[in-house]
């Protein structure tokens, strides 16, 4: 048997991501959400917010700001005397997150059944991450820097899991690929 003929078992993280695709328990809430969003997503403002004018979704672009801010806050947490910079970066991510959420919701309406399952888990995970970063910011503002750092680290871990789901949705499932391309 040649190397190209071998079937490899997917790595454990990929198996977890694929299991979300198979989680039909998510179908009722996932379908209900898509139904509620469909009208707004197909409206003229919805098409604008979905990136039709650019030729691809805007959500992947928007998520870079909160993710980047939160990742940098974790790096500043490792440096002595950078508590204020870290707090401001957490705040920056929190201020940018609603735009990323809104753009993701507009994209959600176009997903098929298996993609909606992953999309719902992606959104839920990122909602938890935003809540953790909100708690981190509150703790930091109240002078509980160590607590803020722990909450921020947890938020970054959850953001990573949510990002893995988003990456799976985009790259393994092809959500948004060639949506508006025509030849």
Description of the molecule:
This protein is mostly helical and 183 residues long. The chain has one domain. The protein is built from 8 helices and no strands. The protein is globular and about 50 Å long. The chain starts with 11 loop residues before the first helix and ends in an 11-residue tail after the last helix. The model has no long low-confidence stretch (mean pLDDT 91).
SSE blueprint:
Layout lengths: L11 H10 L5 H16 L1 H7 L8 H4 L1 H14 L5 H26 L4 H29 L3 H28 L11
Keywords: Membrane, Transmembrane, Transmembrane helix
Pfam family, one: DUF2231
InterPro entries: DUF2231_TM
Mean pLDDT over the full residue set = 91
Number of strands: 0
Subunit organisation of the chains: single chain
Query: pLDDT below 50 for ≥5 consecutive residues: which ranges?
Result: none
């Amino acid at each position: 048997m040649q190397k190209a003929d071998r079937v490899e078992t997917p790595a454990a993280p990929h198996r977890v991501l694929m299991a979300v695709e198979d989680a039909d328990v998510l179908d009722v809430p996932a379908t209900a959400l898509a139904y509620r969003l469909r009208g707004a997503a197909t409206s003229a403002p919805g098409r604008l917010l979905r990136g039709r004018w650019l030729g691809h979704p805007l959500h992947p672009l928007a998520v870079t700001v909160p993710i980047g801010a939160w990742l940098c806050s974790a790096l500043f947490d490792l440096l002595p005397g950078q508590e204020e910079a870290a707090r401001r970066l957490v705040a920056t991510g929190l201020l940018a997150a609603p735009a990323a959420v809104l753009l993701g919701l507009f994209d959600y309406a176009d997903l098929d059944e298996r993609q909606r399952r992953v999309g719902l888990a992606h959104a839920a995970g990122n909602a938890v991450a935003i809540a953790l970063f909100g708690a981190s910011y509150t703790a930091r503002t109240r002078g509980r820097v160590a607590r803020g750092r722990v909450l921020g680290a947890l938020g970054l871990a959850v953001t990573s899991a949510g990002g893995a789901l988003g990456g799976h949705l985009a790259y393994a499932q092809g959500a948004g690929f060639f949506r508006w391309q025509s030849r």
